[in-house]
Amino acid sequence: MIGSAKASPALSGVPETLLITLAARLLAHRLNPDLGFVDPAAETIGAALDFDPNRFAHDRASLRGALVRSRWFDRVTATFIQAHPDGLVVSIGSGLDTRPHRLGLPSGLDWIDIDFPEVIALREALVPALPRVRSWAGDGTDVAAWAEAIGWRTGRPVLMAAEGVSMYLEPEQGRRWLAASAEEAARRQSALRLVLDFASPMMARNGRRNPSVRKTKARFRWGVSGPAEIERLGYRLRETHDVARQSGSLSRLVGATYRLLTGRLIYSCAVFDASEARRGNIPSGRLLS
Ligand SMILES: C[S@@+](CC[C@H](N)C(=O)[O-])C[C@H]1O[C@@H](n2cnc3c(N)ncnc32)[C@H](O)[C@@H]1O
């Protein structure tokens, strides 16, 4: 931020979607008080940013879904951190997320936020700094690039989390990213836990009807047929979560109908462990403090 002027979120396309999840956090106390979502660091960011979260307030289902998803990501991340207080968390597509502030991190844990350069610049300006939380600016799907730059040490347990990201990737890009991550973990003899949410093909096809996403120039690209599609990339499923079930009555109804017709979730969060590796060859980027 320059002087006392508010920072302008001059974002477009996929990076602009970070404003949707930020709006969910900023409006949580008003629109979804029953979830008890508390995030003082998000309030600090909101106060410093030239952004009215009411731009997305009409889309109650998406904002509630984002909070339900965030609480679930908080829980599974906390479980990893508890088991591996000296581990490494790599957050792909962090946006202006404030998970480290919500969770509180043990002193031996390293946390890397990865997003595009314009987003990382905004993070550096707005997100309250924490010890051992660093950023890397670049394409989070360029695994070999960030793995080298952040100093992923051999044998270190890693949690790679990507919240609200996979649906914006080209399908082939998404599959290469996950396969390359499993391969990198095997090469570095690290246990890799993957936490992500993914849209079903139907949800991806209908992405342009999403009232919040349609306000940005972003589009859904990748619909995942189910956890087996991720498992084939070198992972083993540990847990899934049905976000639609808790995201308001319309989402619940649509999700239940889809489940009845297909036997699948319309929109999932899931935890996987990497189980095997594949070779990849991906270009490099830049490490920020
Ligand atoms: C919907 S926002 C979610 C932000 C954050 N995870 C949250 O939950 O608040 C999607 C974010 O993913 C980022 N993103 C999408 N594709 C990416 C990629 N290939 N590499 C790095 N970041 C990416 C966008 O720039 C944006 O910040």
Automatic annotation (TrEMBL):
Xref: Pfam families: LCM
GO MF annotation, one: methyltransferase activity
Signal peptide bounds: none
Record's keyword terms, sorted: Methyltransferase, Transferase
Listed GO biological process terms: methylation
Protein name: O-methyltransferase involved in polyketide biosynthesis
